[in-house]
Design goal:
single chain; mainly alpha; two-stranded antiparallel ribbon; 8 helices; 76% helix
């Protein structure tokens, strides 16, 4: 029952995304990327409804909650959203965001932008909690999973935007974008090490403290470098 609120949140967010995609992309205008994102939201909706029911009906819950079935379903939902968020948030596809003439990322459709991120975060958080609880991992396992997801997003966004931003912005902005690539890469490395160490039972206090402090430092300076006046993330976007 403790994961029931997350399944409920995922269901509600999936409904909003379905409505947003249908609203922005009529059937005649939807391509493969839009159809995949719509299918992902529908699958999230169906699985969420199923596990909400399973948490409320003991006979069904005993079969699917807290075992390999819930592990597999939550992993599938995350895998689908990893791909869908790439399609929705990549400015080159101009679904949720785009690049303006000044080399800044701008939001095209607020509902699709915000709620696709919330869906993705909810799916990641759910997956981390399911694996943590069902396999009895360190309580901070889900937090490392979220850090890994954040770092992947930062890295992929920075790489995707690099050419467009550097073509329109100054060398200072372009240089700071490269720092974002470095921060995302280091975040992936440290989060992956921490996740593997947790899964293998090697996550000691020293490793946890070192990884946490280093990631905090990297991201602290990342926020400063990216969001100041000469940074590539002065406007609201994926960075």
């Amino acid at each position: 029952m403790e994961r029931l609120p997350t399944w409920v949140s995922l269901l509600g967010l999936s409904i909003v995304i379905i409505a947003a995609i249908v609203d922005q992309f009529p059937a005649a205008e939807r391509g493969a990327r839009e159809n995949f994102s719509l299918a992902t939201a529908c699958i999230s909706l169906l699985f969420s409804f199923f596990f909400i029911t399973a948490n409320l009906v003991d006979r069904l819950g005993n079969l699917v909650v807290g075992n390999v079935i819930e592990n597999a379903i939550s992993a599938l939902v995350v895998a689908l959203w990893v791909i869908a968020i790439t399609f929705i948030q990549n400015p080159k596809y101009e679904a949720a965001t785009s690049i303006n003439n000044e080399g800044q990322e701008v939001i095209e459709y607020a509902n699709l932008y915000f709620f696709s991120w919330l869906n993705f975060i909810a799916a990641i958080y759910l997956f981390g909690n399911v694996i943590r609880d069902n396999l009895a991992y360190n309580p901070k396992f889900s937090q490392w999973v979220l850090l890994l997801a954040s770092s992947v997003v930062l890295l992929s966004t920075s790489v995707a935007l690099h050419d467009d931003i550097c073509a329109a912005a100054s060398e200072t902005v372009c240089g700071r974008l490269r720092y974002a690539v470095a921060v995302g890469s280091l975040g992936i490395i440290f989060a992956s090490i921490s996740i593997l160490a947790t899964m293998c039972g090697y996550m000691g206090k020293v490793l946890e403290i070192v990884s946490s402090v280093l990631c905090s430092i990297f991201y602290f300076f990342g926020v400063v470098v990216l969001t100041t006046a000469d940074g590539p993330a002065t406007s609201l976007g994926n960075m």
